[in-house]
Design brief:
Znf_SWIM; alpha+beta; 8-stranded mixed sheet; 23 strands; 401 residues; 29% strand; 7 helices
Length: 401
């Protein structure tokens, strides 16, 4: 029994801190299971957890739970003398362990609760959530002990390859880089030649013809520009075959993925020298090939051929380590990086830097899910080193500070 004089109901664990998958709370409580209850987190300590339970039509009761590796001892303020598996206990356990029978593992030594108790300034209580009642400080980034940081699947990542003519007096050649920035889906980036309309003084009217309209390969005199035009046609052909070329899973690294990446590698030295490049965020062909793209969605960008390096840094922050990823070009850090168009890093000046390999693309996207930063407390560093740092170390040098 817990170290208390209060009457408690004991519930045994099947394995340390884990309830049996076969446990049936409905059988333990034979009363009304459909009555509505409001459950509010109250407090926690190293081996203690407390909630308030308000059953509809009744007064608020307090649930106190003492946790050990073998069992939990539970007290409800509704107990008159003998402990019972009351509706309030049923409500709390159903709420926090229904789909997570290992909920109490956070009270294991060196696990989350012990870490929070040791580092109170790095965590906050979330009084409005009965399950996730602990919130890490934003400075930690993704927290290894709490966040679902997916493990790296690096076995099948392929190595990448190493790395304007006048049209009409009132028009000039421009290039439209098309990719979706929707959170719902991502599309492979394509680029198409497009005619930009000019006024009599040669200033852009911010209006455009349809992609490829009025432009033929014979318009280009230089071989590299002819090659650029041909690859643009290949990109659109692949897009049509793939129903807009939706990207789904980086780790699949499909043939279309590899082909698209290599196409971009081929044209990067050429397209980076073009002066008039725009981004269009609506990646359905009918909006930029079958009809003129809407000017209000078009924004000028730059595409750079400067090589980008990935720099992983592990910092000792006292009670925890913090892993971060930064991007550098010519030794300078790209601040405020964002992934754009699947294969590119961009920042506030809208310049697009292409990642150097498919390997870099995979690692960059993986870290971007965690704002390029993740933390692990020293109690769990050995596992973090095996699951996270060793895969990184197979490809990149890790800077330790």
């Amino acid at each position: 029994m817990a170290n208390t004089k209060l009457p408690t109901y004991r519930l045994e664990f099947e394995t340390p801190y884990v309830l049996s998958e076969d446990i049936n709370f409905h059988k333990l409580y034979d009363g009304d299971h459909h009555s509505h209850a409001i459950i509010n987190f109250k407090d926690f300590k190293k081996d203690f957890l407390a909630y308030y339970v308000q059953q509809e039509g009744y007064k608020k009761e307090e649930i106190s739970i003492w946790i050990s590796p073998q069992h939990v001892d539970i007290h409800c303020s509704c107990f008159s003398s003998e402990p019972i598996f009351c509706y309030h206990i049923f409500s709390v356990l159903w709420e926090v362990t229904y789909s997570k029978r290992d909920f109490f593992k956070i009270f294991e030594p060196s696990n989350l609760i012990e870490i929070v108790v040791k580092n109170p300034k790095l965590f906050h209580k979330n009084m409005n959530n009965s399950k996730n009642f602990i919130m890490p400080d934003v400075s930690l980034g993704a927290l290894y002990e709490m966040d679902e940081i997916e493990k790296l699947k690096i076995a099948n990542i392929p190595q990448a390859k190493t790395t304007t003519p006048p049209i009409h007096p009132s028009k000039r050649l421009a290039w439209l880089m098309v990719y979706s920035e929707s959170r719902a889906y991502t599309t492979f980036p394509v680029i198409v030649p497009i005619l930009e309309l000019l006024n009599k003084k040669g200033v852009s009217l911010q209006r455009f013809e349809k992609g490829f309209e009025g432009i033929e390969v014979d318009n280009f005199k230089l071989l590299d520009q002819k090659r650029l035009y041909t690859i643009c046609q290949e990109m659109i052909t692949n897009t049509k075959k793939q129903s807009e070329c939706y990207y789904k899973d980086l780790y699949e690294v499909s043939d279309v993925f590899v082909k698209c990446f290599h196409n971009w590698q081929d044209i990067l030295p050429i397209i980076s020298k073009e002066k008039y490049i725009y981004h269009f965020p609506i990646a359905r062909i009918r909006y930029y090939i079958n009809q003129k793209p809407m000017p209000k969605y078009i924004h000028e960008i730059q595409i750079s051929d400067e090589p980008v390096d990935l720099l992983f840094t592990l910092k000792n922050k006292g009670s925890y380590y913090q892993l971060s990823l930064s991007f550098t070009t010519n030794g300078k850090i790209i601040f405020n990086p964002e992934i754009k168009g699947l294969f590119f890093i961009s920042n506030d000046d809208k310049k697009h830097y292409m990642l150097s390999s498919i390997q870099d693309v995979v690692f960059a996207h993986w870290m971007s899910k965690h704002t390029f930063t993740m933390s692990v407390f020293k109690e769990n560093f050995e596992e973090f080193e095996k699951e996270i740092l060793h895969p990184i170390g197979k490809f990149y040098k890790l800077l330790k500070k």
